[in-house]
Specification:
Number of strands: 7
Largest sheet: 7 strands, antiparallel
Structural class: alpha+beta
Oligomer: single chain
């Protein structure tokens, strides 16, 4: 029995449309969950005024929206022209990472130019500085307060092409909330230190 081709194509088209709709529905559901989580993160980090606790909370909350193996928060030291690692987590364990000059490496580039850096294969990018042996891809998002960069969030993975443009969008929103929370916590610590000196 031979089925005429004209009957096959419309069926195939319906299947394709159904698949696309299913993918769009799944993505919109995941996006809705991600943005709901981001709203929760915004409320959560805004109430934390201890910097060390805040950095740890940001790392934990980031894991809820983007999978990573290595996470770092580096803040700009304007006097030295360097990025100082405030929190580095590798496979769930905290690690020490040296300072990086502004403009150097992927993190330095993102901070200097105030723009996200998404690299699917770090071995092909001459800016990459090898600090962790198994890193294959990296995503760096600047922490911006208006036009000023106060630091960066750095995600790394042992898999090629581990991060997507969607991850850039989500982490950019998260970083904007984190930047405000970090600045508030810094100001609070300065005020508290000044009060202690006056006493």
């Amino acid at each position: 029995y031979f089925r005429p081709p004209q009957l096959v194509y419309p069926f195939g088209a319906h299947v394709a449309v159904a698949l696309v709709n299913a993918q769009l529905f799944d993505r919109s559901r995941r996006d809705a969950e991600a943005f709901e989580t981001l709203a929760e993160i915004g409320r959560d980090v805004a109430s934390v005024l201890d910097l060390d606790e805040l950095f740890s909370r940001i790392a934990q909350l980031t894991k809820r929206v983007i999978d990573y193996r290595t996470f770092g928060i580096l803040l700009v030291n304007e006097e030295r022209g360097e990025l100082e690692m405030k929190l580095a987590v590798h496979y769930g364990e905290k690690v020490d990472v040296p300072r990086v000059r502004l403009g150097e490496g992927l993190v330095g580039y993102a901070a200097l130019h105030r723009e996200p850096v998404l690299v699917s294969d770090v071995s092909q990018d001459p800016r990459y500085i090898k600090l962790v042996p198994d890193v294959r891809s990296e995503l760096v998002i600047p922490l911006l307060l208006k036009d000023r960069c106060i630091g960066v969030v750095d995600l790394e993975s042992p898999e090629l092409d581990a991060f997507s443009k969607r991850d850039v969008e989500i982490l950019t929103l998260l970083a904007s909330q984190a930047a405000v929370a970090i600045e508030n916590a810094r100001l609070y610590e300065e005020v508290r230190a000044n009060e202690e000196r006056l006493e």
